[in-house]
Amino acid sequence: MLSGRPTNSLCLLLEWSTIHRDYKAESKRCFILYLFNNNKTFVKTMKILGIPVTELVSGLGGILFLWSAINQFLPKKFQYLFQKWCTHLVCFIFPRIYITFNEYCEDGRSNEAYSCIKNYLGTKSVKKAEYLKAEKSRNSKSLEFTLDEGDEVVDEFRDVKITWVAYQETIKDGGGGGSRNGRPFEKRYFILKVHSRYRDLVMEDYMNFVMKEGNAIEFKNRKRRLYTNNKDDDFFWKGRWSYINFQHPATLDSLGMDPEKKEKILDDLDSFKNGKDYYKKIGKAWKRGYLLYGPPGSGKSTMIAAMANYLDYDIYDLEVTTVKENAELKQLLIDTSNKSIIVIEDIDCSLNLTGSRKKNEKGSEEEKRKQSDETEDDKNKSKVTLSGLLNFIDGIWSACGEERVIVFTTNHVEKLDPALIRRGRMDMHIEMSYCKFEAFKILAKNYLGIDEHPLFAEIRELLEEKNVCPCDVAENLMPRGKSEDHVKKCLVRLIEAIKATDCWI
Ligand SMILES: Nc1ncnc2c1ncn2[C@@H]1O[C@H](COP(=O)(O)OP(=O)(O)OP(=O)(O)O)[C@@H](O)[C@H]1O
């Protein structure tokens, strides 16, 4: 509509329902009028509603000058009333709603909505905003971009334009937010502006969309964590759990196991991860239990790390023996987050689960007699019962979150109470077995970078006769070397080791 270089010093945004026919009547809504410092000819001749622009601008300037002069003499109360009246007038001409999202809630806690919006606008502003802020928090993997103070970005949702502005101000008296103790602080907030006719759309669909997207961005950008319920002062604390950043290189690809079995596990994990609607439809909490069993060194812990990497979940490593009672177990469960794997390793050693449930919970007469002779040591022992653990897995409290995986590992599956591992609780039983030839080939590829070797035939025969754990195989294939000689040396060493074991199939 108008062309020419915009000035830096004067930029007027005028919104008219109609404009003068001389200046393209088809453009009836909002337009931006750039005025030039040097009074360009066409600005001089331009008219709006029949009034020359130059006159309009000088008129506006006059009004502003008059207003500031009157302002000096008007009592504060009248100034306030006048401003209020002007705001109402503007709102009447351009009806809009304004929603403020503060960084902190009234009670001083951080506002989840604010961080979701910040994440969401970060991705938008990278493409659109002129001024950006970049920061990297301890818990994020990469740089996060956010809108700088006073900058705005226009988002579009179902053809509706929504404007976001970032604000920051220093509050000197430390008010607003319980934890400030009167100290000055930076108040940050976003304001959303939209035409009032889209109120419902924005408050429901759009805000739900922004929250969902913001959460997803935060989840993707976060560093994963490994939590433990053991008290460790070197770790960070979150509720009843302490944690460190989780970095484990294990992947399902690098795990030495039967490829068919691995494929089944992958399919199962995929259908779990994408199963939100399915679980909702069948009325079941969105969680899944895996029981990993097999001899020591068969890769159970490695499998958990690989699963966490595959699903992009945090891990909660639960040490049941340090949990005092069932109520504490419940609290720990409540403190876990969604999209996580809760692990109880060596479950057979964690509790006395070998006996029948009845006996464990109610106790025989003899046990009751023993209880009265309890020593101080006994008092510190975990009083978690099998029933408490069963409730932990699939009681009513287990449904308080979603997208949770529970993994038990054991070297002695036969020792476990059938109730603990029945399908529905432990949905998939995965045997982590001794190393077979197919699993060996995966390890040889990973550790030595080879697919074939003349010594493979002998190794295949030996693995059909003897039980060798993948950890022993892996140990003999290390360290990595590229030369033919080195590969041969490793394979020969492995052959000797297999021959030396007396664990026949
Ligand atoms: N199937 C496997 N594939 C690749 N590496 C393996 C496998 N099994 C074991 N390893 C290697 O052996 C080491 C020990 O494995 P891991 O701790 O996972 O075994 P585990 O079954 O959990 O043992 P435990 O029952 O004693 O806890 C790991 O460092 C891992 O690299």
TrEMBL record:
Any one GO MF annotation of this record: ATP binding
Single biological process term from Gene Ontology: response to stress
Catalytic activity: ATP + H2O = ADP + phosphate + H(+)
PROSITE patterns (alphabetical): AAA
Transmembrane segments: 48-70
AAA+ ATPase domain location: 286-436
InterPro entries associated with the record: AAA+_ATPase, AAA_N_dom, At3g28540-like_C, ATPase_AAA_core, ATPase_AAA_CS, Mitochondrial_chaperone_BCS1, P-loop_NTPase
Swiss-Prot/TrEMBL cofactor(s): Mg(2+)
Entry keyword set: ATP-binding, Hydrolase, Magnesium, Membrane, Nucleotide-binding, Transmembrane, Transmembrane helix
Region described as Disordered: 355-380
Keyword Phosphoprotein assigned: no
Superkingdom of the organism of origin: Eukaryota
PANTHER family noted in UniProt: BCS1 AAA-TYPE ATPASE
Family per similarity comment: Belongs to the AAA ATPase family. BCS1 subfamily.
Protein name: OLC1v1019507C1
Source organism of the structure: Oldenlandia corymbosa var. corymbosa
